[in-house]
Amino acid sequence: MGVSERNNNYHYIISLFIFLIPFFLDNAHCIRFPDRVTQPARDQPDQQHLQTAVFALGSFWRSEAVFGCLPGVVRTTVGYSGGSKPNPEYRSFGDHAESVQVEYDPRLINFRKLLDIFWSSHDPRQVYGQGPDVGNQYRSIIFVNGTEESRMASVSKEQEQTRSRSSIVTTQILQLGTFHPAEPEHQKFELKQNTFLLQLIGNLPEEELERSNLATKLNGYVAELCPPNIQKQIDAKINEIIKKGWPILREL
Ligand code: MHO
């Protein structure tokens, strides 16, 4: 056996030994490499952790804007809820109330905080309407999912009632049945009135616009319903883009 042949054999034996090490070590062959982690697209946050809440507090154009730019709110959708009519439409939605469905990341915002926003964003003592809008469709409702949310909603309603005894808080607390999404023209209604901003985010097709986190935030911004610091932040970002001439706003 020549020197190089012997070297080859050594290499072979060493390689084989290295290859077999994991099988000798307890558990070593159980090592699992994590599945490939795919990054969620910037504007499509990780769906798995999201929770959903539904509220009715007057015109759904405005309700959607109230929740849209809160940190942790990922998406909003307007619709009809709280009634029994099977296929509600804007021109005939029967006993339903105009509602907003809020999808949120519970790591960043919780149901209790959403309840605070709900109470501070409308007049729950107004009977048969909200602001200038008159009718049962504008009634105030907290839709709850299960007993814990139901308890939190009741406690918050009692607190709201104690703020003043001279009028009654009319808000209903209902277990959420079906939420019927409204027609496309009612989604992101406030933002749709602002062609400049629509253009600034790249004139998204309707379906994308409805699911977009950016559009959700801007919808609140247009209505000037974001918390003041967020309203300012968005102002600054938009002005920066206008100054730089950067064509499209991708994220906030
Ligand atoms: N005050 C609103 C109500 C619209 S709504 C979506 C209006 O301008 O008619 O019910």
TrEMBL record:
**EC number(s) given by UniProt:** 1.8.4.11
| Pfam families assigned | PMSR
Q: Which reaction is catalysed here? A: L-methionyl-[protein] + [thioredoxin]-disulfide + H2O = L-methionyl-(S)-S-oxide-[protein] + [thioredoxin]-dithiol; [thioredoxin]-disulfide + L-methionine + H2O = L-methionine (S)-S-oxide + [thioredoxin]-dithiol
Query: Could you tell me the Gene Ontology terms of the biological process aspect for this record?
Result: cellular response to oxidative stress
Q: Per its database record, what is this protein's job?
A: Catalyzes the reduction of methionine sulfoxide (MetSO) to methionine in proteins. Plays a protective role against oxidative stress by restoring activity to proteins that have been inactivated by methionine oxidation. MSRA family specifically reduces the MetSO S-enantiomer.
**Family per record:** Belongs to the MsrA Met sulfoxide reductase family.
What this protein is called in its record is: Peptide methionine sulfoxide reductase A5
Q: Could you tell me which species this protein originates from?
A: Cicer arietinum
